[in-house]
Write a structure and sequence with these properties.
Elements (H helix, E strand, L loop, with lengths): L1 E6 L7 H17 L1 E6 L1 H4 L6 H18 L6 E5 L5 H10 L4 H5 L2 H9 L6 H15 L5 E3 L5 H18 L7 E3 L34 H9 L16 H14 L3 H7 L5 H27 L2 H30 L9
Parallel strand pairs: 1-2, 2-3, 4-5
Helix pairs in contact: 3-12, 4-7, 4-13, 7-8, 9-12, 10-11, 10-12
This protein binds tryptophan.
Tryptophan binds next to β1 and α7.
Length: 331
């Protein structure tokens, strides 16, 4: 089984990214052939700084390695190193409905918030994402809950391609974790923890110092009750229960039983210590890896060669089926 996922190089990675996506990549290496891509081309769809983009790609590479991706057991590469992604994007545009792209939540949100140019790239973002996955004929795509609509679209694109041009592409399945797919902001627990738009206090960054982590958890917003239980009117406490469940690898009910009658203060302290302990090894390894940029580039270079060998085959098949360019083999 082949597993593919992409990750944005922009921004500092936070606990939500780690629990929702990165953690699943690391598990994916053991379940199948993992291919993981740092999507620098996607990062160009909103205003950005070219030099900062290069830096962010290396930050993200070091973060993924620190989290446990092993370049000997998976393929880790930079999207912009494999030109087949852009070519396949154009080819797939032929079987992508304009109306579907118009309906994408992420496009609607980002274009509404955009004060500068709303680029055509932002509109085509989901097609590039489809190309990312379909180029590898991946079966499974581990992502956070916010990517559900993009995965549905890439399935539709693959199905439409196969119907129109003959069986060529694999229709991928998403894999959204049952717990930890939607970690909420600690200060505004009705909204997702995110790099853009959340408060500094409400966001736990993967590289936060342990003391800062404990402090942020201690001041996490909760309701006026005192029972550690999940409930629709207790988004803050429900979120913290979920965070602890993921870290301990147990279900939320067990967390509720363990902290029955304990009260919010000690519970928040326990979650803070657990999160700090959970992120500490990641932060240490990151510190060791990030300084050696030549080594990080070497990992990406090797990954891009492995990736390109697969993507090249798919794009050649797609061109052949679509009648683009000369025939693949002479008759
Ligand atoms: N859009 C995804 C996100 O913001 C990143 C991404 C790009 C991706 N290409 C992908 C995820 C392919 C899964 C598969 O998180």
């Amino acid at each position: 089984m082949r597993i593919f996922s992409g990750i944005q190089p922009t921004g500092r990675k936070h606990l939500g990214n780690y629990m929702g996506a990165i953690r699943q990549y690391v598990e994916g290496q053991d379940r199948g052939e993992g291919i993981f891509c740092i999507v620098d081309l996607h990062a160009t769809t909103v205003p950005y700084n070219p030099a900062a983009l290069r830096t962010s790609v290396l930050d993200t590479t070091a973060m993924l390695l620190a989290a446990g991706l092993d370049p000997d057991r998976c393929v880790l590469f930079r999207q912009g190193d494999v030109p087949e992604h852009t070519e396949l994007t154009w080819l797939l545009c032929a079987v992508t409905a304009h109306g579907d792209l118009n309906r994408m939540h992420q496009f609607k949100d980002k274009s509404a918030r955009q004060r500068e140019l709303v680029s055509a790239g932002l509109f085509l973002y989901p097609v590039l994402q489809a190309a990312d996955v379909l180029a590898y004929r991946a079966h499974e795509v581990p992502v956070g809950a916010d990517q559900r609509q993009h995965i549905e679209l890439m399935r539709d694109i693959a199905i439409r391609f196969n119907e129109r041009f003959g069986e060529t592409l694999v229709v991928p399945e998403h894999r959204i974790p049952e717990v930890g797919a939607r970690i909420m902001d600690l200060q505004e627990p009705e909204r997702k923890m995110s790099t853009s738009g959340s408060s500094e206090q409400g966001t736990i960054y993967a590289l936060d110092e342990p003391r800062a982590v404990v402090k942020k958890l201690r001041s996490a917003v909760t309701d006026s009750g005192r029972d550690v239980v999940r409930a629709p009117d207790k988004p803050g406490i429900s979120n913290l229960i979920e965070v602890l469940a993921v870290i301990r690898g147990i279900d939320s009910g067990e967390v509720e039983r363990e902290f029955d009658g304990v009260g919010y203060g000690p519970f928040k302290q326990a979650v803070g210590e657990a999160v700090a302990g959970y992120l500490a090894p990641l932060r240490e390894r990151y510190g060791e890896l990030r300084g050696d940029e030549a080594a990080l580039e070497a990992v990406l270079a090797r990954g891009s060669q492995q990736a390109a060998a697969i993507a090249r085959e798919t794009v050649a098949d797609v061109r052949e089926r679509m009648g683009v360019g000369p025939p693949r083999r002479s008759p």
